[in-house]
């Protein structure tokens, strides 16, 4: 955990850069922008116009400059580099902070005059040509940034191994959910869940990395339970059609809800939360579920084990049998579910808050702005220092 309640107050100008995002990265950038603006900093968010439409960065007091950076490298990146250079010149930023490897690559190629920070939010999982290109991007970004921040320890280690001069751990705090707007019974009634039926919830982008095929295959086995659980998956993304087809073919008791803005309500109605991803850093839904006291079954991958400790049931990635067994065990044991939920809220209380995250970033920005041309001081007592 980062040090709480850091006193650093930084009132300079930061440019926050992101590529196409519909989920966690965009939420994190909005959270950081809001906190920095509230503390007196000037924030310019640079990214695709669609991210402004979804996350409304200007609504939290930031300025927005459109820079179209698609999810995958294209020849259009050259234009993105030129547009970013102009945006940074207009912003006169003291620090540039890119989020994700795609944004990091464009930022490195733009060669900003201000110190560049890149937060690594995701691991490279692709293979073949695409994987090779992504690993090249990793190396360029690791060596081109003044500071590499990893959302989990494995990302810090990866950046350091690829040549990052200064790699630090910077856990990403999930934005605090609002209080539920509906009662538990009303949420469950929406999905036709009887009082004696379990409701299992998962939230995330419909992308192959999330391995919702594993959850669907496990859920198909639960049709024979009495009563059968109802499984809902909230999120949108490119895997919707194949997942819908798989659900239908398996006759699984799963409903794909599409994008939802009422995650707090879904958790209020849930008996169990499930994460089946091949990799995650500090997945926002896992944090939200544990904060809400909903028992969690999750894959023991990436930064999830260090996030949840013993406060969630961890299973191997890609293992339908393991997910099936873990969920059945918890559904059959209400006391075990209650205990896991209790441990989850206790564990969540130890995590850095959004305010901690913003204060830690402000301290880093102040450190780099004070010495814009030199290396980050290896011996400084920076609040986010993990591995250097």
Uncertain residue ranges: 1-7, 376-388
The SSE order reads EHEHEHEHEHEHEHEHEHEHEHEHEHHH
The value of Rg in angstroms is 21 Å
CATH architecture of the largest domain: 3-Layer(aba) Sandwich
Summing up helix and strand content along with how strands pair, one would put the structural category as alpha/beta
CATH evolutionary superfamily of the largest domain: Glycogen Phosphorylase B
How many beta-strand runs? Answer: 13
Beta-strand portion reads 15-25%
- The main sheet orders its strands as 3-2-1-4-5-6-7
Q: Report how far apart the termini are.
A: 17 Å
Shape: globular
Q: What name does the CATH topology of the largest domain carry?
A: Rossmann fold
What is the average of the pLDDT values? 92
If helices are DSSP runs of H or I spanning 4 or more residues, what is the number of helices? 15
Helix amount, in percent?
40-55%
The CATH class of the largest domain, by name, is Alpha Beta
Largest sheet: 7 strands, parallel
Q: Number of folding domains? A: 2
């Amino acid at each position: 955990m980062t040090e709480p309640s850091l006193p650093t107050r930084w009132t300079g100008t930061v440019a926050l850069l992101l590529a196409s995002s519909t989920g966690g990265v965009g939420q994190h950038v909005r959270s950081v922008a809001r906190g920095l603006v509230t503390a007196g900093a000037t924030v310019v968010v640079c990214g695709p116009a669609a991210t402004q439409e979804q996350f409304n960065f200007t609504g939290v007091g930031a300025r927005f400059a459109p820079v179209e950076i698609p999810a995958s490298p294209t020849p259009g990146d050259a234009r993105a580099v030129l547009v970013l250079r102009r945006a940074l010149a207009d912003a006169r930023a003291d620090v540039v902070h890119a989020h994700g490897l795609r944004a990091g690559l464009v930022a490195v190629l733009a060669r900003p005059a201000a110190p560049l920070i890149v937060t690594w939010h995701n691991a490279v999982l692709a293979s073949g040509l695409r994987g090779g290109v992504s690993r090249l991007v990793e190396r360029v970004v690791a060596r081109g940034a003044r500071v590499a921040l990893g959302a989990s320890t494995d990302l810090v280690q990866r950046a350091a191994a690829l040549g990052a001069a200064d790699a630090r751990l910077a856990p990403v705090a999930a934005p605090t959910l609002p209080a539920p707007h509906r009662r538990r019974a009303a949420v469950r009634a929406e999905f036709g869940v009887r009082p004696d039926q379990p409701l299992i919830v998962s939230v995330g982008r419909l992308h192959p990395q999330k391995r919702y095929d594993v959850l669907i295959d496990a859920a198909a086995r639960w049709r024979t339970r009495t009563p059968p659980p109802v499984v809902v998956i909230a999120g949108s993304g490119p895997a919707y059609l194949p997942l819908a087809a798989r659900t239908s073919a398996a006759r699984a008791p799963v409903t794909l809800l599409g994008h939802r803005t009422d995650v707090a309500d879904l958790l209020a109605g849930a008996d169990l939360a499930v994460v089946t991803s091949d990799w995650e850093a500090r997945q926002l839904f896992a944090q939200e579920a544990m904060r809400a006291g909903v028992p969690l079954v999750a894959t023991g991958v990436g930064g999830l084990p260090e996030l949840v400790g013993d406060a969630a049931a961890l299973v191997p990635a890609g293992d339908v049998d393991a997910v099936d067994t873990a969920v059945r065990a918890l559904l059959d044991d209400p006391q075990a579910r209650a205990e896991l939920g209790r441990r989850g809220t206790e564990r969540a209380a130890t995590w850095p808050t959004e305010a901690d995250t913003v204060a830690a970033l402000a301290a880093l920005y102040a450190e780099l702005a004070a010495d814009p041309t030199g290396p980050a001081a290896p011996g400084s007592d920076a609040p986010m220092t993990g591995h250097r």
